Amino acid sequence: MSSQFNAGQDRAHAQAATEQFVDSAKDTASTAHDKAHDALGHSQGQAQQSKEENATFLQQTAESAANMAQGALDGVKNTLGMGEQKK
To answer: Rounded distance, CA 21 to CA 76, Å?
Structure first.
C-alpha cells in the first residue's frame, strides 16, 4: 500500500514538474513572439526576415519542449514501472 502511495506521489510530482516545464517553455515562446512582433516596427524586409526566423525559433522551441517533457514523463513512468512494455 505504501509503495502505491509513494508511486502516486511520485507520479503527481512528475506531472507537476512536467507542467511547470511546459509552462516555462510557453513563456519563452511568448517572449520570443513578443520580440518578433516588436520587430515589425522596422523596415518591411527586416520585419519579414525576423518574423520567419522567430517562427522557426518558436517551432523548434515548442518541439524541443514537447520532446523533453515527453522524455521526462517516460523516464518517470519507467522508474515507477508504469512505462510501456516493449515486446
So the answer is: 14
The CA distance from 40 to 23, in Å, is 26
* Cα distances (angstroms) measured from residue 44 to each of 7, 13, 20, 27, 32: 55, 47, 37, 27, 19
Q: How far is CA 85 from CA 28, 71, 78, 81, in A?
A: 35, 16, 9, 9
Buried b (16+ CB within 10 A) or exposed e, 60-87: ebeeebeeebeeebeebeeeeeeeeeee
pLDDT tens digits, one per residue of 7-51: 777 788 888 888 888 888 888 888 888 877 776 655 667 777 888
Q: What is the pTM of this model?
A: 0.41
